[in-house]
Amino acid sequence: MAVHAEAIDQRAHSTEREKSRRRERMFYTGMSIAFLITVVAGFSRTYFLRPYFNPQPLIPLLHLHGIIFSAWLLLLLTQTTLVAAHRTRVHRRLGIAGAVLAIVMILVGSVTAIIRAKSFEVPPGFTSPLIFLTIPLGDMFVFAILVGAAFYFRRKPDAHKRLMLLSTIAILPAAVARLPFDFILKGGPLAFFGLTDLFIVPLVIYDCVTRGRPHRATVLGGALLIISHPLRLLIGNTAAWLAFANWITQWT
Question: How far out from the chain centre does Cα 219 lie?
Answer without folding.
Answer: 16
